[in-house]
Amino acid sequence: MAEPSVAPRSCTPPNTETTLAVRSTPKPEPAADASASSALNTIFRFMDLPAELRLHIYETLLVDTHSYIVPIANLPPARPHVSKSLQPVILRLSRQIHKEALPVLYSSNTFLIRTYPLKRCVPELTLYFGQENAGLIRRVFTVADNDWKEELVEVQKRYKAMGISWEQLQLWGVRIRPANPEDAQEAEDAEGEARRWTEGSEGLVEADEREMERLGVKAAWWEFSESAGGRWVVKKGSLARGGGVGG
Predict the structure, then answer these.
(1) Helical axes 51-62 vs 95-108, angle rounded to 10°
(2) Where is the region Disordered (predicted)?
(3) For labelling, which of 92, 155, 214, 229 has a CA lying 20 to 30 Å from the CA of 220?
(4) H helix and E strand count, the chain
(5) Sign of torsion, CA 193 194 199 201?
(6) pLDDT tens digits for 44-93?
(7) 63: DSSP letter
(8) Distance from C-alpha of 126 to C-alpha of 70, rounded to nearest angstrom
């Protein structure tokens, strides 16, 4: 498999801070002024950039809003629907960059944590990242069939064992799907299961596909046959860039 999209916990930055050079690459015209040529080749410290600009650079290099990360027990994670390569190598440049960029990598990407059946929701899913890094995860969704009868408290316990804090999640959603989308009874059962979840917890609300798109969970991630009849239940107050749902 290609180089994993997230940095393993063994990624330890060097002891000495490294200067990240930002250099303009265009070759000056032969008649260009010497001072202009000098300016084009100026090297400056990356850490001298404003913090807001540094964070924007981290997001550009470490976040893919069109894909999601799937942790796999005892294996490197997968990244379906990938739209670009991520560059976790920047975490090795210096301790300061590692400190600033690591939370961006884990908190801004979306993770599919397999929660159904519950026996698959095991600590080994995040072993590749390490519990400390798993604690930085903020965006999680999962998928369940309409016969899922687990209680939310059980899911929260499993997440805690992985290192994921339910309280700090900025997005959590479960897509409850009928086993057979063309079966009217199955679709009704999925609707009933979604209602059971929201009525059983004040912290959950239902959401439609449009709201999930706004939260960053793309409809393109689902096959057409799978999308029919699905119901979403989300953590109240789930956030997206530019807004939230159920606040």
Answers:
(1) 60
(2) 1-34, 182-201
(3) 155
(4) 8, 9
(5) positive
(6) 788 999 999 999 999 999 999 999 999 999 899 999 999 999 999 999 99
(7) -
(8) 10
Q: Which two tokens stand for residue 42?
A: 């100026």
Phi-psi region of 246 (alpha: psi -120 to 50; beta: other; left: phi over 0): left
Q: Residues of the chain with pLDDT > 90: what percent?
A: 50
Q: How far apart are CA 158 and CA 2, in angstroms?
A: 29
Q: Partners of 206 in the beta sheet?
A: 233
Concatenated DSSP letters for 66-130? T--BEEETTEEEE-TT--S---GGGGGS-HHHHHHHHHHHHHHS-EE---SSGGG--GGGGTTT-
Host H or E run for residue 233: strand 231-235
Q: What is the C-alpha to C-alpha distance for residues 4 and 105, in angstroms, rounded to an integer?
A: 13
| Rounded CA separation 18/97 (Å) | 9
Q: What single letter denotes the amino acid at residue 135? A: G
Rg of the Cα trace of the chain?
Answer: 22
Residue 165 identity: S
Q: Give domain limits for the chain.
A: 19-48, 50-245
Most distant pair of Cα atoms in the chain: their distance: 77
Paired strand residues for 233:
174, 206
Determine the average pLDDT of the residues in 21-40: 50
